[in-house]
Amino acid sequence: MGVDVFQIEIRVSDLNVAMDFYRKTFAWGLYQVAPGYTLVDAGRMPVIGIMHDPRLPIGVAPLMLVNDCEAAAARAKELGGRVMYTRSEVAGSGAFTAALDPWGNEVWFWQQFVEGHPRLKHEPVNPFIFVEIATPNLEKATQFYSDLMSWSFWNVPFTPNYAIVEGCGLKRGVGLYGADAAGAGVVSYLEVANLDETCQKIEANGGQVVVPPEPFLNEGKYIIFADPAGNRLGAIEPTRPA
């Protein structure tokens, strides 16, 4: 059984601006739990965190739930990646490390001190369901993530340069996308009910639609957008049953 995505963490330059954007755009329940840190209740796992820490660059990263975060980072290095952050603890909660895969994509590891998931009270609304990792070498990336996460990928029919693994703590799973070196990066996708309305809300609340609606793996359509800090995320409107 492979590693699960436990949390999506959004690092921003202004926490209040980010909270206003995500509350108005996606109707999330937001709870500021510490200076510079807000937890989001979207009604469905994974956990979502919004963070402002001037020591860290802006960005969006999935946190993988592991038994030993130091061992996971060491394994990523052994497979050709680099350690980005050594072990750091969150008092009473857990510890984390971070690595870069061989193509510079962030991979964070979260080690819980107490097992279990948070109690989500919000009605499910616009949760994260899919993570896409772009890489210039799909074959090597498939091997790297299979070895690191114990994930089993399959090639998507009629979609060149794309492999996917289902589950991983997400409704839709994790995808690997073969792109040129300049296109490497990680995009986390929310599920929305109406993509056109979502585009309007993103623009009205200070974000920007970067990639307009396009087909998503023959299962609906997607967009890429930037939040007010410049973080790139995605939104998917799945095909609805007839």
Describe the structure.
- The chain has 242 residues and is α+β, with helices and mostly antiparallel strands.
- The protein has 2 domains: 4-112, 2,3-Dihydroxybiphenyl 1,2-Dioxygenase, domain 1 (Roll); 128-238, 2,3-Dihydroxybiphenyl 1,2-Dioxygenase, domain 1 (Roll), CATH 3.10.180.10.
- The protein contains 4 helices and 16 strands.
- The protein has an 8-stranded mixed beta sheet with strand order 2-3-4-1-5-8-7-6, with helices on one face.
- The longest helix is centred in the first third of the chain and has 12 residues, at 15-26.
- The chain is globular, with a radius of gyration of 17 Å.
CATH architecture of the largest domain: Roll
Order of strands in the sheet with most strands: 2-3-4-1-5-8-7-6
CATH level-4 homologous superfamily of the largest domain: 2,3-Dihydroxybiphenyl 1,2-Dioxygenase, domain 1
Broad shape:
globular
Helical content stands at 10-25%
Sheet having the most strands: 8 strands, mixed
The top level CATH class name of the largest domain: Alpha Beta
Q: What class do helices, strands and sheet pairing give?
A: alpha+beta
CATH structural fold name of the largest domain: 2,3-Dihydroxybiphenyl 1,2-Dioxygenase, domain 1
Gyration radius over CA? 17 Å
Write the layout of secondary structure elements.
Layout lengths: L3 E8 L3 H12 L2 E6 L2 E5 L5 E5 L7 E7 L3 H10 L3 E9 L3 E7 L5 E7 L15 E8 L2 H12 L4 E2 L6 E4 L7 E6 L6 E7 L3 H10 L3 E8 L4 E7 L5 E7 L4
Parallel strand pairs: 1-4, 5-8, 9-12, 13-16
Antiparallel strand pairs: 1-5, 2-3, 3-4, 6-7, 7-8, 9-13, 10-11, 11-12, 14-15, 15-16
